[in-house]
Amino acid sequence: MKLLLGLLFLQLLSSEGDADHLENQEKLKALGSFHIPCDQMMSSESPSSSVHTLRPADVKIVTAIGSLQGIQGLGVHHEHLLQSTGKSLLEVSVETLAALISSFNPSVLHQPPLPSTKRETSDSQATDLLHQAEQIVKLMKENQAMDFQNDWKLITVFFSAENPCSSCASALLENCVLDNLQKFKPVLDFLYNEVPKAFVNLVDFTELTTSPFACQDYNNASNQCGCFGEHSIFSNNILRWSYQDAWEKLLDYKKFDQKNDFTVVVQPSPQENNLLIRLGRDGFNTTSKTQEETLGEDYISIALGLWNNMMEPVGQKQPYSATKILQIQCPSQEKPYLFTYANSNYSSSPETSNTKETSQERIYGTNIPCFDRDPSNTIPVSVHNLKPADINVIAALGDSLTAGNGAASKPQDVLDVLTQYRGVSWSVGGNENISTVTTLANILREFNPSLVGYSTGTGKQTTENAALNQAVAGDRAEGVPAQVRRLVELMKNDTRINMQTDWKLITLFIGGNDLCEFCNDPVHFSPENYTYNLQTALDILHREVPRAFVNLVTILSIANLRELHTSQNTCPKLLMRMLCPCVINPRNNSSELKKLIYFNRRYQERTRQLVESGRYDTTDDFTVVMQPFLTNTNIPRTQEGLPDHSYFAPDCFHFSQKSHSQTARALWNNMLEPLGEKRDNQQMEDEIVLKCPSETEPFLRTYKNSNYTYPSQTPDYGSQLLCEDRSPSFPPATSVHALKPADVKIIAALGDSLTAGTAMASDNLLDLNIEYRGLSWSIGGDASLENVTTLPNILREFNAMLVGYSTGIGSVNDSNAFLNQAVPGAQAEHLSAQARNLLRLMKTDPRIDLSADWKLITIHIGGNDLCNYCKDPDHYSAENFTRRIQETLDILHKEVPKALVSVVDVMNLLGLRQLFVDSQVQCPTYMADYLCSCVLTGEDNSLNLTMVREATNAYQLGIQRLVESGRYDTHEDFTVVIQPFLQNLKIPLGQDGHPDISYFSPDCLHPSQKGHSQLARALWNALLQPVGQKADSFDYEADVVLDCPAQDKPFLGTYKNSNYTYPPLEPTNTPTENWGSDLSCSEWAPSRHVPASVHELKPADIKVIGALGDSLTTGVGADPTDLPTELRGLSWSIGGDGALETHTTLPNILKKFNPNIFGFSSGSWKETAGFNVAEGGATARYMPAQAQKLVELMRSSSEINFKDDWKLITVFIGGNDLCQYCLDKETYSVQKYVKHLQDMLDIFYEALPRVFVSMVDILDISGLRQIAASSSGCALTIKNLCPCFFNPEENSSELQEIKRVNRDYQAEALQLINSGRYEEREDFTAVMQPFFRNTLLPLDIDGKPDLSFFAADCFHFSARGYAEMAMALWNNMLEPVGEKQTYNNFTHDRSKLKCPDPDKPFLSTVRNSGFRNSDLNSGKTEPLVPYWAVIVAAVAGVLVGSLFTWFVSGRRAKRQLLNAENNTKETAL
Asked: Cα torsion for 1029, 1035, 1039, 1045, to the nearest 10°?
């Protein structure tokens, strides 16, 4: 996308404003076909007759008019805004839209906008716009390239209001906006009457050029902007929406839709004023290239945002950022047209509601049924003895919900939501009295009429009547400390308040705005930062306000608001998206929505933890009580079950007075309910009857007067060990089978994040990278067993001199990690490296006697392998997993004497899914894909889970077979024992039946310290259990008592001291196969004299060999036991391992002719790669670099004669280009593919003497889809490796397109080779070897793809497949051009290799194949091969392939009828 912006901008800058339109048009055509990711097939055959079915391809001309009002006080006028760079905003918008539309209609025109003619007179903007409209229409009528009456026109009108409106006076705002917009209505009337077949975009930039927006971030805002200096995002959004709403009312779209060929649609404009701020600060006189480029990209972003909104139905259009890179949207398949009001089924008229009012509709007063309203006999000194009547002062902190925004607004008066009705605010309003207005303050005034601090009337927090209601509309948690400081100052300066003796009730409710913005900055709005800000505010109150009872109201479940947005009602949907995008915009079941719900719950949970920490209960006259009544509140509903918007202000976001009344009642009742019994799910539509203080406890309830004990904040994770015999062996043990716990002197561990202790003591997601190694279950040594249960702490009870355990926190590289060599994220393939590091540490540490000390080494691995298994089943196969474990154990077995290796079996991870599918559990479900996608995502019966389940069993079985093979029981001082208790994992459940996450860290994947303690206990007991009797399940909740060694056998359990006999191993048949070839030719000798012409080059003349390409040339897959290894020595085109009789490769064939050939690869190391410069994952764009590298290698080699030696270079590339084509059609276009090949060949042509280049045709890759269809494992692997070929549905347009590109790669590469570009030199040629052009897929005896030709990933070739490629390449090199075989039938035959023709024993070129007989030195520049010959050759190849397919199919049918056996079958791809 950045590339698109950059190229568009460069194109637009490169053309002058007065440049020829046709020249610009050609540029737009190139842009349209080059960058747009939309389906080209969506072009309509004939233009639409209705504007409501208008497709982008129907648009013939694009133009715009515009006039933007200046920013007051800044000297920034609309002329400057429109012309602040080399291209104006209008010009860039027109040209960008034209470039986008040209992707659908290459003949689209663009009419450049006219310069503004604005004069400083009244109504000058409207006059200017009307004048522009008249001139544009005149120019379009005169344009000979279009039919004015019949061609569709896209016209965009940019404007801004001349007289900016103030949202400070909300009552006048609507009239102000309408007055401004009414002036522009004649422009639309003119277009409607004069322009047929027009789609008019209306883009209102008023919000960016009016003072409340423009004055943000300026130091002198207060002077220029008046009340705007204090405006919040909330008020700005209201003002932004007001212009949008006003336009929709003004347009009266039914009038403008009376004609079927004309419409006007209001499109959202950018949200921020970043663009104007830059202009205002930087000025307009600079010619900085950086500024021009930045502003130009902003202009393009505006145009892209406009385009995207044209693709969205009215009512679903999104505001966007002028400085944020956007993804281009394409027309949908279902509705591939530009959206209008009519085809969006949109109505700006409010919908009427027929729902019945609930019982408390419009009844805002309350009766208080309490008879005892007296204060305490004496002023209480303890907050725990505080009666309602004892409260003298009331105050509140928070956001617009406490400020009362829109609380008393009339229905549908959205602009009035700007009014702060503080007098009716639920927690602190004091309008009238309890009989008419229910608020907490009015309830308390019934107990103490002298209460002070409540707010009345309307206004901001700075007004006198706001009193101690210091809530700030739009504030987030970070703003509360400032509110507290103002509140404290007000109370200290209020003569009615005795700060030391008066009891104060302060209610704090905050967090809605944090959640509304969290998705834009999850770190800034993290639950941890939210709680920190609350703590900072409460700390100030605790420190500076004596005699205070603080209500901390838990934030509600804000996701419920989504129902108001999705249901049919009068809610302003666009405004809701503006006010709370992170709540409203996410799709259902999306990771974004899951993240919101998680953050919401963590806000609630961490609020509880803060209060229950006891931090605010250090004095008797202060407390903070969490009031949870909103925690699980649902959206109120009508009697019909629909969301009841009468409980909300007109913006459907804030509370109406109805809700304020209900919330006040619920808060009062919560305050009287004891802790532990408080209601946490008050439903607003229920009738709420006010409670009265109890006779026995007539106090506001606190933890103390509720007899409530906060949960312990410092849990004890220690254990008791009741073993009497803790002595070591005497004499010292010499056998591992007689090893007592006290004999162990060294402890070590290998593994992943579980053993590293990742996040185990964390309380938030930000600490997931902390490794608490000192607390790790198998190797941590912090503190002692009394308070930290780990295996080392248990063993230290037997041997206090134990060495090797880790302490504290840190990475594996820190010294305190010691012999804990586990690495977070490690997989089985990393384990051997950990073992080597461990060995190095043990050998070099002076505290360790490697030969004499007994060692206990714990290994646990496999979780990360399983989490990634479904992505690459071959790499993470059970065979590879077991082999990697074997490599590690082999190292320990060979190098570490006196050791018991305890292998904790692979954990069955599937149980962890319960934590992520239970909606009641506070786990980060949005992180499931990141944490462990193969396990934690998908349906329970999905293929991925089936694969993981099978892999888990296979991993466990593989380890069992390895250990029970006896491989590690060859001497008496070493053994390996499996501890199988994690084979079956039981997830702990709480009393509510939901998973108990206290056993897990915040990510719900790693165990917490509580979980680690249980794991350590289970591991210890498993060590003592006899082999064959060990527990194979683990219950986190089990009350695990530490076992003691048996008196008769006080040893760590091994197979021998358990009298356990390993079962016999099952025999395995692993036949070795030889894919070599036989070659017996009559002529092996080189030419008598070194040939000067490449057209007389014999095989034996070749002295040097090289190769370029990707992983197919590096030999990936040649080793069946290790897929990722690049076995270059077996590479088909360049490998030289072994001999031809055992390994068929091109160098091994050439060795028969010249045993001294140089440059081939050997082994798997890059140091022995020779002239094989291929790189795994390479695409065509890497070929020039590989070519340059090869030239330098050859030039610098002392083994060859750079000038005189003949060189054979094989190039095979393109598979990765095709596989990624759909992801970036520009980068992997046919044109760029061929251009990269040309650049590569040009390098060789200019720099290398005496070269024969074999270009191997890219294979017809689509046939591999049959392999994917034949195996679920193959399907998953191939789809990951090559998504563009294997993800599209059969017969889909996407599949047809990629097949076409595949063929175009072949055809265009062939045309390059045969163009004559490389035939001017006598000692250079490039020849296409086409054996892959019509490849035949090998089938087995059952007619299924024969996977023996392919590697384990079903994509790369096996050694057998590479041998077939080498044979086909060799044969192609000998076949004349025009007669080369264009297929490869993959049938194994050791005698398939051809010999050079005795009459023409040369490698075939275009010339020696008879296509050109004239002298090359004639000086002519025509291609050596006529174009018709290229076509004939290509068609001939296709026909040969087709005939061969028919022939093979016929023979196969015949063989099947005869029931004859055959090794392989083929089918045409």
From this structure: 30
